[in-house]
Specification:
Layout: H1 3-8, E1 22-27, E2 30-34, E3 40-41, H2 48-55, E4 59-60, H3 63-69, E5 79-80, H4 81-88, H5 98-104, H6 113-133, H7 143-154, H8 159-165, H9 203-214, H10 222-231, E6 245-251, H11 257-272, E7 276-280, H12 283-292, H13 300-306, E8 307-309, H14 319-327, H15 334-346, H16 359-363, H17 392-401, E9 405-409, H18 410-418, E10 429-432, H19 438-445, E11 447-451, H20 452-463, H21 474-478, H22 480-485, H23 490-500, H24 521-536, E12 546-549, H25 557-587, H26 595-625, E13 639-648, E14 651-661, H27 665-673, E15 678-683, H28 694-705, E16 715-719, H29 725-728, E17 729-734, H30 742-756, E18 760-764, H31 767-783, E19 788-790, H32 798-807, E20 812-816, E21 832-835, H33 845-853, H34 859-876, E22 886-890, E23 910-912, H35 914-925
Parallel strand pairs: 4-5, 6-15, 6-16, 7-9, 7-10, 8-9, 10-15, 17-22, 17-23, 18-20, 18-21, 19-20, 21-22
Antiparallel strand pairs: 1-2, 2-3, 11-14, 12-13, 13-14
């Protein structure tokens, strides 16, 4: 049956629901099971399998998370509402809980576990009704064939329900429904754009554009208009090459900085015919920016033309990976691929990570079922790919070239700069939001690691998968069309393949203790590096990563390093010759090359350079350093080198030599900022608020952002937050508990979380403590009816957990300190933030060198500034709107008062006992008069 015939012969849609019970697991070890007859069970987890054998597979939300909460290995045959949601409403967001789905579908939110269980069949019914109403939409042209294929392949629990809703219960299964690339539009190249103009944006014009974006009747925020005026100075013509217009702007939370810089940026792009690149540190802010830009471009089609989200190639669905997965898929993988197919037809840009692809979908299936559909290993063959003209990445690159605003992330901008421009080419104007993270972003982008994982990845890229079935092609397969026409390429390619076997092979991490005779130079070097780390590291716990200084060298290391250096040079030389031959073919006037052949040659040359020659050059330089005398103690280095050993669950899984810039803002300034015409760096927390000398605070901000390495001074601007922190927040340091006791920390969090009635975020500086506290805390909160979620415990990624936390207003969330940057939760859903201890920087070798050489002779102050900044960033999560109220608690009696000086103006931290902190938290969040909570002495 063709899709068209199926629609013409369709029956009226019917509502058919599975006959099983509804199951929810509100807390670890707690379940509510509601049968179709309305009988409610609250069984212990051990009793649940017997009940499910009696009543059948359950309807639930997020089967893996439910099973983990109940301590079960799985829930076979479960009717997961998330699968149905992804099929019926692809590319639409919804937190993966009963309440989250209810809110997404405009249904009444459940108040307790019994109400949630009762709601599950209604959620299913509403999804099926929406599918039935849209059954004739182009999106659903092949939906019946796809559902029938899933019923045939693996008896998908929702197949009969979906087919009944589509009015095609007898639809014939067809794998053609999975071939979504046939329905995707092809991109077309435009002519080269004209050179951009250099018209400035005046402060008054930026203010006018801001007022236009906000519209009549909008809330008047003078500081936002002032910020737009200051930001406009980054959009004036530069006077000298290498000296961009620089603006360093601190805008307190609530200023409205996003639209404040969008106003001059969008005006400049319109006037001058070139895009402005806006870079953020987190995916979360990328999403927020996209939403904010709907105010500038309310029409979706106009916004799609003028605003493009750009990320690295590894973030997008690779149609070739998907095609090959579909072609050889076992029946058990088809459900995941079918739901990806539904999404691929509805997605805005093909972004699998942080875009409109629901993150929880990855969690429902075995590892790799979806994540391996992205090009995470640099396998792209560009124009040789049969899907190249429909490729999501190529679409976004071409759209970005003609857009007004390109929303990227710090990592992409810097990696492309490190690669000499990348696929998009350098931009003329940059806005770096979350500018306080520039140091960390540059640290990740401009670094090198000569380790087992990196070397093995290069071997795989050169040789392909050695044994087994894999898509990994190897260099020979990538060049196979050229080899037949140009046999001169074969000798250097043979040498490359021979030399690549010096790199670590498959399973190298299991050969640490094998005899060294005949070992590949790569593996011998890793073994020597591991030996030195084990001998010198101060880390005795085998569960934690270990590291040691490079010098003095262990006796085994110089020989192993010299052998590896020779082997890498033997690999690099034929690769360079191969690239030279490819360039010669491209430049030979006697070669009559088709356009496709030219593109393949350019792609091959670029790939060899970036994937092989660049890392080989860095690695040989690092190994060469081992032959030189170490620097004198106290001498400031350009780079910091050290050896490290990576561990997972007590096993050594990698070792290697690492190199980072001492000051990574140097390459950021020279490779990213200096070539640009204008750079705006904005953040709510650029300066250290504890510095009483404003000039010193600005100098430190310029050092952390790389501005000090540019020849022209930056224009500085600072706008305070309009929020009343004194009235709307409280800050407590609990003094009568031991921060090293998981039991006491768990008891304190329990009392505080209950006092707040939920809406609490607990942050930890170590995963092990987080897990220990969660195990103690979960039962008490479950008994109180407060949902508790935890990073590194629940079967969900961080973004999913934050989405749930935002939707479940009275839930609580535990995470590591790094989670704070991904949490943007306005309103009551976040009203209490508890740190288990001061978030000091990790005492690593790299940090040791930086605190010595970048601290201006004040190493302790360097640590203080980092910890103060983290506390201030975390505190900023509490108040996102003028009417928010929140309590900030540190469970660390050792907290130095000097660290608290960085909290917002008006916040007066108090040192209290736990009981008093709990009372004051309950009083403040319960709306009691301020006078009732002024019991503790303020810090001085």
């Amino acid at each position: 049956m063709t899709a068209t015939k199926g629609r013409n012969d369709a029956l009226p849609p019917r509502l058919v629901l599975p006959s099983g019970p509804a199951l929810v697991a509100p807390a670890p070890g707690s379940a509510a099971l509601l049968t179709p007859d309305g009988e409610l069970f609250t069984p212990r987890p051990a009793e649940l399998p017997e009940l499910l054998r009696e009543f059948g597979p359950p309807i639930l939300v997020h089967a893996p998370a439910t099973a983990r909460r109940l301590g079960l290995s799985g829930l076979p045959g479960a009717c997961d509402l998330l699968e149905l949601f992804a099929f019926c409403l692809p590319a639409q967001p919804a937190p993966p809980t009963p309440r989250g789905l209810a809110l997404a579908l405009d249904l009444p939110a459940p108040g307790d576990a019994e109400a949630a269980a009762a709601l599950l069949p209604e959620i299913a019914a509403e999804l099926l009704r929406r599918l039935a109403r849209a059954r004739h939409a182009p999106l659903n042209r092949d939906a019946a064939m796809l559902a029938a294929r899933l019923r045939q392949a693996n008896d998908w629990p929702w197949a009969d329900s979906v087919l009944a809703a589509l009015g095609q219960p007898a639809a014939r299964p067809s794998a053609d429904a999975l071939k979504v690339w046939r329905q995707l539009a092809e991109w077309e190249d435009a002519g080269p754009p004209p050179p951009p103009a250099s018209h400035p944006v005046a402060p008054a014009e930026a203010r006018a554009r801001l007022a236009e974006i906000l519209g009549e009747g909008a809330e008047q925020r003078p500081s936002q208009a002032d910020f737009a005026s200051a930001a406009s100075l980054a959009f004036t013509p530069r006077e000298l090459a290498g000296e961009p217009r620089l603006v360093l702007a601190e805008a307190g939370t609530g200023t409205g900085k996003t639209l404040g810089y969008v106003a001059p940026a969008s005006l400049w792009a319109e006037r001058n015919g070139a895009p402005v690149w806006i870079a953020t540190y987190t995916r979360n802010l990328q999403r927020q920016l996209d939403q904010e830009l709907a105010r500038l471009y309310p029409e979706p089609e106009e916004r799609r033309r003028k605003v493009v989200i750009r990320k690295g190639r590894e973030n997008y669905l690779c149609l070739l990976n998907y095609d090959e997965a579909v072609s050889g898929a076992m029946p058990g993988r088809l459900t995941a691929l079918a739901l990806v197919a539904r999404w691929a037809l509805a997605t805005r840009d093909g972004d699998l990570l942080g875009g409109d692809f629901p993150g929880w979908l990855v969690e429902l299936f075995p590892p790799g079922s979806i994540s391996l559909l992205a090009d995470r290993r640099g396998e792209c063959i560009h124009s040789a790919c049969p899907h190249w003209k429909r490729c999501y990445v190529e679409h976004s690159i071409r759209r970005a070239a003609g857009a007004h605003l390109v929303v990227a992330n710090h990592a992409l901008v810097m990696v492309q700069a490190a690669l000499g421009g990348g696929e998009d080419g350098p931009a003329l104007r940059y806005v770096f939001d979350e500018g306080h993270h520039l140091f960390d972003a540059a640290d990740g982008a401009f670094s090198a690691a000569l380790c087992g994982a990196e070397m093995a990845e290069l071997r795989r890229w050169l040789l392909g998968q050695e044994g087994g079935r894999s898509r990994a092609r190897g260099l020979r397969r990538r060049l196979e069309e050229m080899l037949a026409q140009h046999p001169a390429l074969l000798p250097p390619l043979d040498l490359v393949e021979h030399a690549a076997r010096a790199l670590p092979g498959a399973g190298w991490w299991d050969r640490w203790d094998e005899a060294e005779d005949g070992a590949a130079p790569g593996e011998a070097f890793l073994r020597a590096a591991r030996t030195q780390v084990l001998a010198r590291s101060a880390e005795a716990d085998p569960l934690y990563d270990a590291e040691c200084d490079l010098h003095p060298l262990h006796a085994d290391l110089p020989g192993a390093a010299a052998a590896l250096e020779t082997a890498l040079e033997a690999l690099r030389d034929p690769l360079k010759y191969l690239a030279k031959l490819l360039a010669g073919i491209l430049e030979d006037p006697d070669q009559e090359l088709e356009t496709g052949d030219r593109i393949r040659l350019e792609t091959a040359i670029r790939s060899v350079e970036r994937r092989a020659l660049m890392p080989l050059t860095a690695w040989t330089a690092m190994l060469r350093q081992l032959r030189e005398a170490p620097a004198e103690p106290g001498q400031r280095p350009t780079f910091v080198d050290w050896l490290a050993l990576s561990r997972r669950e007590g096993r050594d899984i990698d070792a290697g030599l690492h190199r980072h810039w001492l000051d990574p803002t140097v390459p950021f300034a020279t490779q990213v900022a200096a070539p640009a015409h204008g750079v705006l760096i904005a953040s709510a927390t650029l300066r250290d608020a504890a510095r009483h000398d404003p000039e010193a605070a600005w100098r430190e901000a310029e050092a952390r952002t790389g501005v000090q390495h540019l020849p022209n001074p930056a224009i500085r601007a600072a706008l305070p937050s309009p929020f009343d922190y004194a009235a709307n927040t409280r800050a407590f340091i609990v003094e009568d508990l031991s921060r090293d006791s998981p039991a006491q920390v768990a008891a304190a969090m329990q009392q505080l979380f209950l006092a707040a009635g939920g809406g609490a975020l607990g942050l930890f500086t170590a995963i092990r403590r987080l897990r220990e506290v969660h195990a103690r805390l979960a039962p008490a909160l479950a008994e109180a009816g407060i949902p508790l979620y935890a990073q590194h415990v629940d079967a969900m990624d961080s973004a999913t957990l934050v989405d749930i936390f935002r939707a479940e207003e009275d839930s609580c969330l535990l995470g590591t300190d790094a989670l704070r940057d991904g949490v943007d939760v306005p309103g009551r859903a976040l009203r209490l933030l508890v740190f288990d201890r001061v978030p000091w920087p990790r005492p690593s070798i790299l940090h040791r060198e930086r605190r010595i050489h970048l601290s201006g002779g004040r190493p302790s102050a360097y640590d203080d500034a980092i910890a103060r900044h983290r506390l201030r960033q975390a505190f900023g999560r509490l108040i996102r709107r003028a009417d928010d109220r929140g309590v900030f608690v540190l469970l660390d009696p050792r907290t130095p008062s000097r660290l608290l000086a960085g909290l917002p103006d008006g916040v007066t931290p108090q040192r209290l006992g736990l009981a008093e902190a709990v009372r004051q938290t309950a009083a403040f969040l319960g709306g009691r008069p301020a006078g009732a909570i002024e019991a503790a002495p303020a810090l001085r």
